[in-house]
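Work Package 4 report. The design task specified in the project plan requires that, given a folded chain encoded as structure tokens, an amino acid be chosen for each position. We show below one input record used in the internal validation round.
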């Protein structure tokens, strides 16, 4: 199934989320085999999963509905409580109850609901603070978030960076002929993130209006996260990041003086 999705250009996270959603909705009696064109999409039965994915690829039968995304499909089927997504973007299996700051990219990133912009675990795995000792360790979360914006923009694989010894700064300086400092890398990444964020603001989007599914915030029914709840911590985690980025705590609009510090003064006053 993974190979088929890759060959068809389907997002494996989105497809996996849809399959899990369909299984649970069927188990709870919200949908039936008839709704699924006779396919038996039940837990433990893998035989009908690939045919369903093929229907999604070709927009045939129920696949035409599911191809619109998990959020839209759940709304149409009346099964919203089983759909784990943000604005129709399926959330991956990376659980914020294990790594709390995943709340930040899931909700605040210009492309929300994704784990790739930031996972706090990678700060230590990549030896970020050791590679850039001049940076303030108290700002490691916003700094690494911005650093990853930079490394993604220059086409570096985040898995390769986890070796902790790839000379990113030297690499960029050699390729560009510039003489950037460690702090410059963070500033450039912050500029990238800020411009993307301002684009969304221009389109009337305030990420604080997104709602994280309660099932990734409440205590799990079982397993290692059964005693972990983020309901009371969500606001604090988001406020700390917004404050560090100098974005308004209510509108998320970046501070004008800070835009000037980033060299983005041309974007002050909705000029984006």
């Amino acid at each position: 199934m993974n190979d088929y999705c890759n060959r068809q250009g389907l997002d494996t996270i989105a497809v996996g989320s849809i399959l899990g959603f369909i299984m649970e909705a069927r188990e709870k009696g919200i949908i039936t085999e008839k709704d699924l064109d006779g396919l038996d999409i039940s837990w433990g039965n893998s035989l009908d999963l690939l045919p369903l994915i093929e229907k999604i690829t070709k927009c045939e039968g129920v696949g035409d509905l599911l191809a619109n995304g998990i959020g839209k499909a759940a709304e149409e089927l009346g099964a919203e409580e089983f759909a784990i997504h943000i604005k129709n973007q399926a959330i991956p299996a990376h659980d914020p109850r294990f790594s709390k700051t995943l709340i930040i990219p899931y909700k605040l990133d210009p492309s929300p609901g994704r784990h790739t912009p930031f996972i706090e675990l990678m700060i230590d795995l990549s030896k970020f603070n050791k590679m850039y000792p001049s940076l303030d360790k108290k700002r490691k979360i916003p700094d690494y978030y911005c650093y990853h914006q930079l490394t993604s923009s220059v086409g570096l694989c985040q898995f390769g960076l986890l070796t902790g010894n790839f000379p990113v700064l030297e690499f960029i300086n050699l390729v560009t002929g510039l003489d950037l400092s460690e702090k410059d890398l963070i500033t450039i990444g912050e500029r990238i993130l800020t411009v993307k964020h301002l684009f969304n603001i221009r389109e009337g989007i305030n990420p604080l209006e997104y709602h994280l599914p309660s099932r990734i915030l409440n205590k799990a029914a079982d397993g290692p996260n059964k005693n972990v709840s983020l309901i009371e911590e969500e606001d604090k985690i988001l406020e700390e990041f917004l404050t560090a980025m100098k974005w308004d705590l209510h509108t998320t609009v970046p501070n004008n003086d800070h835009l000037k510090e980033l060299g983005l003064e041309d974007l002050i006053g909705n000029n984006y």
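Residues 2-90 form a domain with the Aldehyde Ferredoxin Oxidoreductase Protein, subunit A; domain 2 fold (CATH 1.10.569.10). Validation will be extended to a larger panel in the next phase.
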